[in-house]
Amino acid sequence: MKTILVDMDGVLANTNQHFIDYEYQRSGEKILWDNISGLLEEEAFPNFLEDVNTKNFFRTVPVMENAFQGLDYLNKKYNVLIISSATEFPNSLTEKAEWLAEHFPFISWKQMMFCGRKDFIKGDIMIDDHPKNLNIFPGQRVLFSQPHNSNRDVEKATRVTGWDDIINIL
After folding, report:
1. So which residues are the catalytic ones?
2. Residue 149: how many CB atoms within 10 A of its CB?
3. Which ranges of the sequence are coiled-coil (predicted)?
4. Would you say residue 13 has pLDDT above 90?
């Protein structure tokens, strides 16, 4: 059975919408998706570092549309590992594990890999929204479209716009 590596933020978790919602609650300013196209998260969201270090930020992120059905489908067909660069933001370790248990109860703690780098994790297929992670991955690459990667391509990657696309290609 093939192993598929699935990123959390920007793939399962709608972190961009969460940043937008946080900024709106804080300042009343509505950040528009069109205005953040091509910008890294640190550039797009003025309070990025404050937000990712806020208690419960990662615990309350909305689920990406159709992610439950898509991940359930993959989990029945592949050896699924959820991978997340979580150690940079220590609050996120527990929060992400709790978030996964709540929203994807079919994912076991044994399928969760929280790390600082993804280059040492082995698998056959990787779904990620950051080109830096896919560029170092030797297997099949799936780039999940997000504003921060709109002007970046990954060699030998299939770009998807959502979970329906993932189900169709895998």
Report:
1. 7, 9
2. 23
3. none
4. yes
Angstrom distances, CA of residue 46 to CA of 34, 91, 98, 149: 16, 20, 27, 18
Q: What is the pLDDT of residues 104-132, one digit of tens each?
A: 999 999 999 999 889 889 999 999 999 99
Single-letter code of the amino acid located at 133? N
Query: Are 129 and 148 contacting, i.e. CB atoms less than 8 angstroms apart?
Result: yes
Grouping H, G, I as helix, E, B as strand and the rest as coil, residue 32 is coil
81: its two tokens: 């590992």
The residue behind tokens 């797009």 is 44
Q: Length of the chain, please?
A: 170
The domain segmentation of the chain, as residue ranges, is: 3-14+59-169
Token pair of 16 as six digits: 């961009």
Instruction: Give the span between the Cα atoms of 156 and 139, in whole angstroms.
Output: 9
